[in-house]
Amino acid sequence: MLSLKNVKVPVSEKIDYKKIIAKYLGVSSNKIVSYKIYKESVDARVGHEFCYVYEFLVEVSDEDKYLKNKHVTKYIEEVYEFPKCGNTPLVSRPVIVGAGPAGLFCAYMLAKHGYKPILFERGKSVEERIKDVDTFWRDGILNKNSNVQFGEGGAGTFSDGKLNTLTHDRMHRAREVFNIFVSCGAHEDIMYSNHPHIGSDVLRDVIKELRNKIISWGGEIHFNSLVSDLIINNGEVKGVIVNGEKIASEVVVLAIGHSARDTFNMLYNNNLNITSKPFAVGVRIVHPQELIDKNQYPMVYPNLPPASYKLTYTNSDGRGVYSFCMCPGGYVVSSASGDTSVVTNGMSNYMRDSGFANSAIIVTVDSKDYGEEVFDGLKFMESLENNAYKLAGGALPIQKFRDYEIGKISKDIENTDAFTKGRVKECNINYIFPDYINKALKNGINYFDNKIHGFKDGIILAPETRTSSSIRILRNENLESNILGIYPCGEGSGYAGGITTSAIDGIKVAEEIAKKYKSML
Q: Could you give the CA distance from residue 177 to residue 498 in angstroms, rounded to a whole number?
């Protein structure tokens, strides 16, 4: 198999893959036995040819004679390998707490290799969870254990399903994650797209298939099952308390997500080593997708994907201001998990066809802003969410950015149903944040207007607070906490930042468990 790299196709052309490959190899099309796209991106940089850039995997006869072509190398297959099982017998089945990406992928790997994990999720199955979220968006009635944050699939279920990661991946775990997603129903294009995403609508079915595979391999998944305490003896975990029942296990994976604040307190009270960590807070900004496309592409063609952006700025006080979780063709969604809080997030379906782009614009904060105690950052997050609740009565505060600059409540913002999920209320968002955050946001968005003309004509919604966990549960080189047998995992534990990195961390934890313990088959 050959790798054919740096194949450029003008975006204005109708793409015939086989014909293009034949041209780059200098052969007739009938000499090509097979091919598939390995990577695809759009090069829209100023001064460069406006084109698609491809890498193909190509099968032809007499492959060696093509290796002198500057575009061609031998393809070395990227194969993920799960480690050999250890020798220590397991007395009880491994317990996984949380059914977000980290928990699901940890359970998937353990179940596939014969460990028969039991996964407990405080929320509902994705089918039932969707009903609760729709009720919240429509009527404002919140189920505190089944919402945008809690339930099967985790917070990522109601997101864009973005799979971007900057993780250096020598073990090919990320590609294995993508392979698993495709095997469970995700579109094949996530394997090669430069900005892979599943889409919230597709992700729901993918999660159900993940669940089915875990169960088919001997795993169990229990919903409406809150782990309220740990059973610990002489510095080792012996089990968990679930809905008042004792469940014995010497292996407990904590894939609890970044919003399980009551669980954080329970873990702290059980003497797990937990530290605070910096994070970022801010707003969601919305623009017509057409505005972003016209700024990001030299010319707009019907076959181009909705354009995205990535923006950074350093404020005069040294704070970073940057875009985060950008959702082309998406929606701003109301994402609270508490009775007196308001939270925003971004979501796109697979087609990204809402007509509106949104992104978080966030400002870095750390212990100098909120205090040195472990949960001071968490309290700071909660204070912003509570401020927003008081301001808008549970709806999402919304304001034109130009009005936010001068502290004026916007009037008659139109067509909000086209770019939001949940109730909105026109408010002065300045009242949510301390002055230093308001100033940094205003400076940053004005700076971004130099990069994307019309950026400061956007509409903002607030607050965006759950960009990452405010705490980290410390773990050793074997990924165990100071309480042996407990494996902190994923975004909530402070080791990931999105669907792919969370899934990878879940796989890493499964590997460490497998290296130590015998399979239960």
A: 13
Task: Determine the average pLDDT of the residues in 226-251.
Answer: 98
Amino acid 152: pLDDT: 97
Q: Is 434 left (phi over 0), alpha (psi -120 to 50) or beta?
A: beta
Residue 65 contacts residue 218 (beta carbons within 8 Å): no
Say how far residue 149 (Cα) sits from the centre of its chain: 12
Give the pair of three-digit tokens for residue 69: 């072509």
Cα–Cα distance measured from residue 513 to residue 444, given in angstroms and rounded to the nearest whole number = 44
Alpha-carbon gap, residue 347 to 162, rounded angstroms? 9
CATH of domain 95-275+472-516: 3.50.50.60
Neighbour-count burial for 454-487, b at 16+ CB within 10 Å, e otherwise: ebbebbbbbbbbbbbbbbbbebeeebbbebbbbb
Instruction: Give CA–CA dist 377/367, Å, rounded.
Output: 7
What is the pLDDT of the chain when averaged over all its residues? 96
Say if domain 2-74 classifies as CATH 3.40.630.30.
no
Distance between CA atoms of residues 452 and 446, nearest Å: 10
- How is residue 243 annotated by DSSP? T
Sorted by where each begins, the domain ranges of the chain are: 2-74, 95-275+472-516, 278-464
User: Which tokens hold the place of 438?
Assistant: 């308001």
pLDDT of residue 166: 67
Residue 50 scores a pLDDT above 80: yes
Q: What is the sign, positive or negative, of the torsion defined by CA atoms of 207, 212, 217, 222?
A: positive
> Can you tell me the distance from the alpha carbon of 477 to that of 465, in angstroms, rounded to the nearest whole number?
30
Run of H or E including 385: helix 376-392
CA distance 418 to 461: 14
Local structure of 171: helix, strand or coil: coil
Pairwise CA distance, residues 11 & 3, whole Å: 22
Q: Are 485 and 251 in contact (CB under 8 A)?
A: yes
Report the distance separating Cα 332 and Cα 285, nearest Å.
9
* Gyration radius of the chain's alpha carbons: 24
427-430: Cβ within 8 A, 24+ apart: 427/391, 427/392, 427/397, 427/398, 427/399, 428/391, 428/399, 428/404, 429/283, 429/391, 429/397, 429/399, 429/404, 429/460, 429/462, 430/404
> Shortest CA distance to 510 belongs to which of 163, 171, 274, 178?
171
Mean pLDDT, residues 352-369 taken together: 98
Residue 240 corresponds to which amino acid? V
Burial of 413 (0-12, 13-18, 19+ CB in 10 A): middle
Residue 25 has which token pair?
A: 């190899």
